Amino acid sequence: MDGLSQRLSTLGGVITPYRIDILQGNVVVREQVEALQPGMSRQQVQAILGTPLVASIFHADRWDYVFTYQRQGQPVQRRVVTVWFEGDRMVRVQTDGELPTEREFVASLQVRRPSGEAPPLQASDEQLQAAQAAGPKAPAADAPAANPATPPAAASYPPLEAR
């Protein structure tokens, strides 16, 4: 998104619309991959990593675990772990980069809100005096004066309960 449309969509950068975090696929952390050993059965691999996101009949000897995490204001995280089999036994595992530990992954999920002072919820004396000095707005000359003490003219309302 270019700079102008980004500023317009966020009201000049002051207010940003809320966007939910999008988590897709299998979260695979370093400890899980380290637990895998060549020669493990498909069931053992699935018990450690979970059901693969991609298990194609055209590539029956390969399982792909794909994970993406998208959070507003942060780059998209994408990781791929591929497990190869010969028959029913695992032969190797490949990752697309350094996997985080479980602790590192959980820490990355923590919402980091900017810390700062909360705005005052009470008007200062100067603000009150300025508001009083401005006074109430006079009604327009052609507007009818409303008297809050008189009820509206013969309004008919349905009963609140059935009779």
From TrEMBL:
Regions of compositional bias (Low complexity) in chain numbering: 130-163
A GO biological-process term: Gram-negative-bacterium-type cell outer membrane assembly
A single Gene Ontology CC term: Bam protein complex
Alphabetic keyword roster: Cell outer membrane, Membrane, Signal
Keyword Ion transport annotated: no
Region (Disordered): 112-163
One annotated GO molecular function: protein-macromolecule adaptor activity
Location within or outside the cell: Cell outer membrane
Keyword field contains Signal: yes
Main location: membrane
Domain spans labelled Outer membrane protein assembly factor BamE: 25-93
PANTHER family assigned to the protein according to its UniProt record, in alphabetical order: OUTER MEMBRANE PROTEIN ASSEMBLY FACTOR BAME (PTHR37482:SF1)
Subunit-structure text: Part of the Bam complex.
Family, similarity comment: Belongs to the BamE family.
HAMAP family per record: OM_assembly_BamE
Role: Part of the outer membrane protein assembly complex, which is involved in assembly and insertion of beta-barrel proteins into the outer membrane.
Name of this protein: Outer membrane protein assembly factor BamE
Gene encoding the protein: bamE
